[in-house]
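Quick one, tokens below:
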């Protein structure tokens, strides 16, 4: 694994809302992914194929997570990045749901679920990592427009 912060259970989120506050702030679809670790269907998210330059923020708290310069086409059905914007932007934690071992990616600020990170898949990226992120977990702030 890379240098990202590990195991969010060891530190409290910087943005902490009650369950009912999250439900008020987010749509039911956003809540299901961001707060209940759901997954949007592949190839339906608004940022899957976008080439817009900009900064991707957490839809729940607004923290900067990824930049378009680290986004690449993985053809997996979700936006893919090879590195977060900052080493503290995301937290990685083990996910053994669905009977397999994966590494979950959560927002470093509010600990909302973003997706998963995979390694060693052979993508021609500098990190050999694929941060597979739900579009519904993100908002894009375009630059230079």
């Amino acid at each position: 694994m890379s240098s990202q912060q590990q195991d969010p259970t060891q530190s409290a989120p910087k943005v902490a809302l009650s369950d009912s506050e999250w439900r008020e702030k987010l749509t039911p679809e956003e809540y299901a992914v961001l707060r209940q670790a759901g997954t949007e269907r592949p190839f339906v998210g608004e940022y899957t194929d976008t080439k817009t330059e900009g900064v991707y923020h957490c839809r729940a708290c607004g923290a900067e997570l990824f930049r378009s310069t680290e986004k690449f086409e993985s053809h997996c059905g979700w936006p893919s990045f090879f590195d977060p914007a900052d080493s503290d932007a995301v937290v990685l934690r083990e996910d053994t749901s669905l009977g397999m071992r994966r590494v979950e990616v959560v927002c470093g600020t509010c600990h909302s679920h973003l997706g998963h990170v995979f390694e060693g898949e052979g993508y021609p990226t500098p990190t050999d990592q694929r941060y597979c992120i739900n579009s519904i977990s993100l908002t894009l702030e375009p630059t230079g427009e």
